[in-house]
């Protein structure tokens, strides 16, 4: 937890968080501040309440309880003492602060013609701690490579919330922009131009347009821009070879991704889902999958405090979704025991989804020159 993040909190609340044990600080993921309710944190794969001296407890009645004054002061710091300046963010239910930390908000919704106009009486905050994990992408990237085109396949990374999608996509962007492909057969490929559409300001954590996370030397960022519009802006103005977007799911996102495909641009995206079955249960994602857009799917899951990944090709996805197998609808809690065959739930009524595969356009890249790549040592960290 950085000092700049700590400084968001009012002094009395900050003093509690500063006393957290060091191992907890280094794995801190969430700080939940609720008016007149126990202070709670999420770290590793656990949740605990926090006492006034910074020690942890499983008992809510032992926890420090933030007051209305604490919540009011926190909101003022988050909004720089001007709620109207972040009215659009309040309408969406979160504010992203310096460093890429996203703060979810809960309160009373104010409606305008049936749509949420903004929030008021805010009494709940979920501070999600953003941190780079350099090296995360190196474990996954070799399985995403399209060797015929010397770039990545169109890829969708899926998981429930807080499994590491944004952290992974950030490090993959860095690897691709730097030309670190982490595969011996990709030596000499060089780097690719990466365009990130960072709607929630989490991937790059830009400060006045400049990324604060390391995204490599050949990366451009559209900050706080809606994904669908941003994808088209990137293609028209910045000629990316790979477009990176987080949390797709709307029909307009799908149309922009299809436009990127036809423009010869590779797409690296994330979406909320607990597995392939959930992907194919969401109409927008199912449509993209059925059209053969994605050549790879990366499924993320937690095992204890470690994030594990599984890479599935489009052909494998087609085979998996054609089977009738037991599954539990939705994500399971982090501390739930592994699902056994005996405890699985029959998937009655699940209709298999047909997944097509399609050839992707070849990316125009210069052929490797043996003498140059040998001198430059491209392709490896």
From TrEMBL:
Residues 362-381 are annotated as: Disordered. Pfam families: Spore_III_AA. Coiled coil: none annotated. Keywords: ATP-binding, Nucleotide-binding. Residues 151-300 form the AAA+ ATPase domain. It comes from the Bacteria. NCBIfam families: spore_III_AA. This is Stage III sporulation protein AA. It comes from Cohnella soli. The lineage of its organism: Bacteria, Bacillati, Bacillota, Bacilli, Bacillales.
């Amino acid at each position: 937890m950085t000092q700049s993040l700590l400084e968001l909190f009012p002094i009395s609340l900050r003093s509690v968080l500063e006393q957290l044990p060091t191992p907890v600080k280094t794995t801190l993921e969430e700080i939940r501040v609720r008016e007149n309710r126990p202070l709670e944190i999420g770290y590793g794969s656990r949740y605990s309440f926090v006492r006034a001296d910074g020690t942890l407890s499983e008992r809510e009645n032992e926890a420090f309880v933030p007051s209305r004054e604490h919540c009011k002061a926190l909101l003022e710091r988050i909004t720089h003492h001007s709620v109207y300046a972040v009215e659009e963010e309040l309408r969406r239910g979160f504010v992203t602060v310096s460093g890429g930390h996203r703060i979810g908000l809960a309160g009373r919704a104010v409606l305008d013609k049936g749509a949420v106009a903004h929030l008021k009486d805010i009494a709940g905050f979920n501070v999600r701690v953003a941190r780079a994990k350099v090296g995360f992408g190196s474990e996954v990237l070799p399985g995403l490579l399209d060797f015929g085109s010397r770039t990545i396949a169109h890829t969708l990374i899926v998981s429930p919330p807080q499994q590491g999608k944004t952290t992974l996509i950030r490090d993959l962007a860095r690897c691709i922009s730097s030309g670190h492909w982490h595969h011996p057969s990709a030596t000499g490929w060089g780097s690719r131009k990466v365009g990130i559409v960072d709607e929630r300001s989490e991937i790059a954590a830009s400060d006045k347009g400049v990324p604060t996370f390391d995204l490599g030397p050949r990366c451009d960022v559209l900050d706080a821009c809606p994904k669908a519009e941003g994808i088209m802006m990137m293609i028209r103005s910045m000629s990316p070879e790979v477009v990176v977007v987080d949390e797709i799911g709307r029909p307009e996102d799908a149309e922009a991704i299809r436009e990127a495909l036809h423009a010869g641009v590779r797409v690296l995206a994330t979406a909320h889902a607990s597995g392939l079955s959930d992907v194919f249960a969401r109409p927008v994602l199912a449509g993209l999958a059925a059209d053969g857009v994605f050549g790879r799917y990366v499924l993320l899951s937690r095992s204890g405090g470690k994030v594990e990944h599984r890479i599935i090709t489009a052909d494998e996805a087609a085979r998996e979704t054609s089977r009738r197998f037991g599954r539990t609808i939705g994500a399971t809690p982090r501390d739930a025991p592994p699902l056994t065959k005996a405890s699985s739930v029959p998937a009655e009524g699940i209709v298999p989804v047909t997944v097509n595969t399609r050839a992707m356009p070849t990316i125009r890249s210069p052929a490797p020159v043996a003498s140059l790549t040998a001198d430059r040592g491209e392709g490896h960290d």
